[in-house]
Amino acid sequence: MVKCHTLINRRNKCLLIVFIVLIGWIIFRPKAYTYSLNDKEKEMLIMLSQHPETRYFGFYSIELPADYKPTGMVMFIQGSAMIPVETKLQYYPPFLQYMTRYEAELKNTSALDPLDTPYLKQVHPLSPPMNGVIFERMKAKYTPDFARVLDAWKWENGVTFSVKIEAKDGRATRYDGISKIAEYSYGYNIPEKKYSYLLFFQDYNLVQITNPHQKINWRYNMHRLTLHYLESMNYL
Asked: Which residue ranges does UniProt annotate as crossing the membrane (predicted)?
């Protein structure tokens, strides 16, 4: 009987300790950080939020003040590289016209070394239903042509996306000697880079990426964006 009473007391003490710890955690737990706007910030925020415009950060869309022009682009990671995704609001006919002009410009660009010609190596149209093209070109007109750039363009839902990624093609016979010494630098990875582009363009689109969860993430950072805008306009 005494032993049973002792066990009950121990249990009650344990429950009491747990209860005290729980109450203490509720009272002293770290509070979530909150930020209160002052009167000037509230006034400017109300004014700015009256006429928002949709802006695109890479594949993300967000409502921002019309005068706000953010710097920097959304990046995606391809291997160990971080590559900027440039965006522009554009109708489809102007996009097609620009692609025609841009392709002509690349074709008319001459490499400084005649051995490296042509500057524009190949044109890879994106497979339907995607609208766009990948221009395989030299990195620059003054660099050897083993250094390439896959210059990709895609149009979707009124937005033009531009992504540029470096690649290499050292298969020319004039690189045979040096490629044996520096195989990594003078290798050939065009197919792999092109395939990564196609996966990227197929897996990411405006419908998928602007889901409610992504919008919540953007709202979470909206206060910081707003203050950055106010500071850039010398309102604060």
From this structure: 12-28
Taking the chain, what is the end-to-end CA distance rounded to the nearest angstrom? 75
* Gap between the Cα atoms of 211 and 60, Å rounded: 10
Confidence bin at 4 (pLDDT 50/70/90): low
Q: Environment class of residue 150 by beta-carbon count within 10 Å: exposed (0-12), middle (13-18) or buried (19+)?
A: buried
187 contacts 172 by C-beta, under 8 angstroms: no
Identify which of 146, 151, 145, 148 has the alpha carbon closest to the alpha carbon of residue 105.
Answer: 151
The runs of H, that is alpha helices, within the chain are 2-28, 39-48, 92-107, 176-181, 190-203, 206-209, 212-220, 222-232
DSSP secondary structure letters along 133-146: EEEEEES-TTS-TT
8 Å CB contact between 209 and 160: no
Distances (CA, A) of 7 to 12, 99, 121: 9, 82, 84
Full-prediction pTM beyond 0.85?
A: no
Instruction: Decide the pairing of beta strands 60-65 and 75-78.
Output: unpaired
Query: Does residue 215 carry a pLDDT above 50?
Result: no
Nearest Cα to Cα of residue 134 among 155, 157, 150, 114: 150
Cβ proximity of 188 and 170 under 8 Å: yes
d(CA 35, CA 156): 38
CA distance 95 to 97: 5
Q: Tell me how crowded residue 197 is: count the other CB atoms within 10 A of its CB.
A: 21
